[in-house]
Design goal:
The protein is an alpha/beta fold. The protein is built from 11 helices and 8 strands. The longest helix is centred in the first third of the chain and has 22 residues. The termini are far apart. 34% of the residues are buried.
Length: 288
């Protein structure tokens, strides 16, 4: 009976979506074109007809196409660039040459990072830049869930079960929170426990903590600075509350974009100095 109700509920929801798209067709965030969401992408995480069957993780490319079809037209979706090997083993930057295995980049060889690995599903190109800016600066918080889906698939792709104990968003200073109204990094992981059931993954062993890593100093926005200035700007800008949460634990830092790595490197330095076993990094996009 429960399964039958779920099937009927899904059917009514699909009819509602079709009606809504006919009256209020979606408009692409980037090119402003009206478009129709393909049927196989309309259901977001999974279009399987059996509601009791879990949706296995898709490839990052496929998940990006599905999750972001809610805000991007097919032409703009096609321009998204997944991060693919060969990449730097440490910071995850994709190499211009598409030949050869993953290896360390010159920057990571020259100056070691205060984290183990950094990974991202997408290259920070024109399309995903616009999506992130709409989400981050224009208050389009409705895009948090599809972006969270994509980030969760990236997590399941790059980390084995048991590889992470605690997930922490890179924090904003309270003054920035008051101005923006939310921390975009936290919104990207807030729905992970609810999404996990769709992917046959168990996240019950992972703690998602909001206010353990804190921002103690207001800083100039990193986007306005060069590499050297970024490192100087962010130095000693973070602190810890409830240090016991991270002692001896494997930490995953979450942010929206990895540019030079100055912010996550400073966070990693603090966490390791206060007893974390290791620190890794996951972002939505990787600048190249």
């Amino acid at each position: 009976m429960i399964q039958r109700r779920q099937v009927l509920s899904n059917q009514f929801y699909r009819l509602y979506q079709i009606f809504q798209e006919a009256v209020f067709p979606p408009k692409c965030l980037v090119c402003n074109a009206f478009y129709r969401i393909p049927e196989h992408r309309r259901c977001g995480i999974s279009s399987r007809s059996d509601p009791t069957e879990a949706a296995w993780p898709l490839s990052i490319r496929d998940q990006a196409q599905i999750s972001l079809s809610a805000c991007l037209c097919p032409d703009c979706l096609a321009e998204l660039t997944p991060v693919e090997s060969p990449i730097c083993i440490c910071c995850g930057i994709p190499f211009q040459s598409r030949q050869g295995p993953d290896h360390y980049c010159g920057a990571c060889i020259a100056s070691g990072k205060k984290f183990g690995i950094a990974r991202a599903p997408l290259v920070y190109d024109r399309i995903i830049t616009e999506v992130i800016h709409c989400f981050k600066y224009r208050g389009k918080v409705q895009w948090a869930r599809p972006l969270s889906e994509l980030l969760l698939v990236a997590f399941l792709t790059f980390w084995e079960k048991g590889g992470i104990d605690v997930v922490l968003p890179v924090p904003l200073h309270p003054s920035r929170i008051r101005m923006r109204g939310f921390n975009q990094a936290y919104l990207l992981i807030r729905s992970w426990p609810g999404l996990a059931a769709h992917y046959s993954c168990d996240l019950s062993h992972i703690r998602i903590e909001r206010d353990v890593l804190i921002r103690t100093m207001p800083t100039t926005p990193q986007s306005a600075l060069d590499r050297t200035q970024r490192a100087r700007n962010i130095k000693n800008a973070f602190g810890l509350d409830r240090q016991e949460v991270i002692v001896g634990k494997k930490i995953l830092l979450i942010d929206d974009v990895y540019t030079t790595g100055a912010t996550v490197n400073e966070c990693g330095r603090l966490l390791l100095s206060r007893g974390a076993q290791k620190v890794d990094v996951l972002t939505l996009a990787r600048a190249v």
